Amino acid sequence: MPEAPRDSHIEHDLAEKNREILNFIEDVTANADEVQKRVLSEILSRNANVEYLRRHGLNGQTDRDTFKNLLPVITYEDVQPDINRIANGDTSPILTSKPITEFLTRGERKLMPTIEEELGRRCMLYSLLMPIMSQFVPDLEKGKGMYLMFIKCESKTPGGIVARPVLTSYYKSPYFRDRPYDPYTNYTSPNETVLCPDSYQSMYSQLLCGLCQNKEVLRVGAIFASGFIRAIRFLEKHWTLLCNDIRTGTVNPLISDTSVREAVMRILKPDSKLADMIHRECSKGCWQGIITRLWPNTKYVDVIVTGTMAQYIPTLDYYSNGLPLVCTMYASSECYFGVNLNPLCKPTQVSYTLIPTMCYYEFLPVNRTLSRPSPTSLNHTQLLELADVKLGQEYELVVTTHAGLYRYRVGDILRVTGFKNKAPQFSFVCRKNVALSIDSDKTDEVELQNAMKNAVTHLVPFDAHVSEYTSYADTTTIPGHYVLYWELSLNGSTPIPPSVYEDCCLTIEESLNSVYRQGRVSDKSIGPLEIKIVEQGTFDKLMDYAISLGASINQYKAPRCVKFAPMVELLNSRVTSNYFSPKCPKWVPGHKQWIHCN
């Protein structure tokens, strides 16, 4: 870890740097439309001769109107053939004039192209976060952040290009590994503990270092709320071992990674007083407020609690004694987008200001129905610019990136909540087509239906079938898990053994994507899938309830996923039996279905 400089002017320099960054935000938001024109022109000029743009007849033109008239709005499936060519080793300028240096994985099947300079652009957005935060919480530079950061497995495409999650890319880059001292990136976790590929050793050693430096910690966090709660759960299970390490000044033999042990030993010193305090707090039984009890100087919890992560807010409030839950930025594998300029707002009021330099933004108006959002009829020339969106309206985000995506539908639905100067601010509404999500997994209705089709074959010998079903992402357990509610039609006389339902659970899990299975097997971020058998007539009751709320009886379809608490309560009140997956599904590190590039 870099050492803190002894410069007496550090506070002055930091204040000056913060002012420059805040001025940058003022400038680009005040001139949002002009900046967007420039960004699009730069992207199109640089890539004037790439195959994709020539294919659509752009011929070096860089103006908005020509761009909108000639280039289609696309999804991943539209650009996948080009991405597959690059993944298979084609080095010609297909999407960008600069070489694709790696792919950032989104879900199981999507490879997002990126170029070397894009990492610097993402780091620039990171650099905005703490100057914003320091306006609301002073003196953060005087302590450390206990951020739980983890890498995930990576693969290589047939052409030899690395494919990995965006955060793994960042943590393994020189921007993170070789960063100079900065009080805002001064973390309790040594780099070696973050870069450890073993999730158990990484979690254990990061928590150990965080506890050792508990008085210095001013902020705690992880990327997703689910990951932070998983860390607290880990602490509940292993605090006695961690206590012993602190008491003796030694590292548990279970931590076998030499570089991790050495990094931890540079921090760890015998401290019986601290060990006594941890033992006293953790052995009380009640873990309410455990964050402020173990890390008493913590000002806030930095985690994503928007979208599907909102389901974890009550649990975080319980563990943190109501500390502010801060969502600082909005990003995806395709591109990093924006920042929260009011970070101490309530989680339900989080809005992100899109930074106009990050990419070229367009917005597809969305119609909302009771069940799901759907874009209006798509006219490629009628998407709105960043500066033209309307307050209160919802849009699907469409981006043109520096790294080779042109008019690409990200799949995020956003609502305009206000403006920072001339740049709009958006709340995140939902991810399009996602039915279930616990952590980084995203399961849609089609995938769930296919998994169901595979599972119900186990019922055929008993002359039984599933007459109706729905699903629920249950986060009342730690880790959370998928629940399927089945209403059965039983025509045979032979009782169905519990083992058959358990086989159904496992078959569903093995039919789901590798991101889900990695969460089950490696990350331990998802619990065993559960099937709950409900009484006959339960789904009629569910329909009656929906109709009582205003649903049309003519258009009603049983929802394939439920989130509304009264509906979940209705289903749970009619459960006759339940079954869990008996073991983890198969998952092989590095094996991805998207590697099969044709």
TrEMBL record:
Record-annotated GH3 middle domain positions: 352-431
Family matches, as InterPro entries: GH3 (IPR004993), GH3_C (IPR055378), GH3_M (IPR055377)
UniProt keyword list: Ligase
Protein name listed in UniProt: Auxin responsive GH3 protein family
GO molecular function: indole-3-acetic acid amido synthetase activity
Superkingdom in the source lineage: Eukaryota
Domain GH3 C-terminal: residue ranges: 447-564
Family recorded in the similarity comment: Belongs to the IAA-amido conjugating enzyme family.
Organism: Vigna unguiculata
Gene Ontology CC annotation, any one: cytoplasm
Pfam families per record: GH3, GH3_C, GH3_M
